[in-house]
Amino acid sequence: MALTIFILRLAVCILAFPMYLLDFLGLWNWICKKSLPYFLARFTVMYNEQMASKKQELFSNLQEFAGPSGKLSLLELGCGTGPNFKFYPPGCRVTCIDPNPNFEKFLIKSIAENRHLQFERFLVAAGEDLHQVADDSMDVVVCTLVLCSVKNQERILQEVCRVLRPGGAFYFMEHVAAKPSTWNYFWQQVLNPVWYLLFDGCNLTRESWKALEWARFSKLKLQHLQAPLSWELLRPHIYGYAVK
């Protein structure tokens, strides 16, 4: 099986040679950063349509974590184009972070379409370094389809715990590796190297639930599901929340 995966990976990489050449020349990262927001603006519409019921279920109890003022202070990591905004409760104070500044104009459009929220600020930063966010300052931190592409999951979760107030919650919805010995897992293994380059560091084969289980949360509610998505490679999912 390992030999078969290696041969198929090699064939796929040969077909993707122009992309690897652009990466070698130092051009691909710029192209990817510029084009990815346009792709995700379309993809997230489809994703929200197919995952609407699960997102509504996931975010249904957000308001329970509001502070004494009754207003929810929320930090979204890897906010992208802002596809989660419509699921947040009215009056929610939202701070957004993304390492790609090219998402900002899409984010502004989403903010204009979600007047029920109070937008605080957009920070260009990686989730591994949230130094611009104070300790114990957030009621809730959210990330969806983010842990697949970060460089250091453990470090991000440490930062999440730092910025959450005691009793605050971390909400997540992530695509993950399929079960071993399935065809989906096989093709994830074959396509992952090219997928990683094509989609700006996204990994098909991450077992992100392990990082969440190892993190220092007092409570973890995590579920696995086969998401009703058109893209079969992305169907294995986890979702839930963890309490500091």
Automatic annotation (TrEMBL):
Source species, domain of life: Eukaryota
UniProt entry keywords in alphabetical sequence: Membrane, Transmembrane, Transmembrane helix
PANTHER family from the UniProt entry: METHYLTRANSFERASE LIKE 7A1-RELATED, METHYLTRANSFERASE LIKE 7B
Residue stretches making up the Methyltransferase type domain: 75-172
Record's protein name: Methyltransferase like 7A
Short name of any one Pfam family annotated for the protein: Methyltransf_11
Molecular function via GO: S-adenosylmethionine-dependent methyltransferase activity
KW Transmembrane helix (keyword) present: yes
InterPro entries documented for this protein: Methyltransf_11, SAM-dependent_MTases_sf, Thiol_S-MT
Transmembrane residue ranges: 6-32
Organism (species): Balaenoptera musculus (Blue whale)
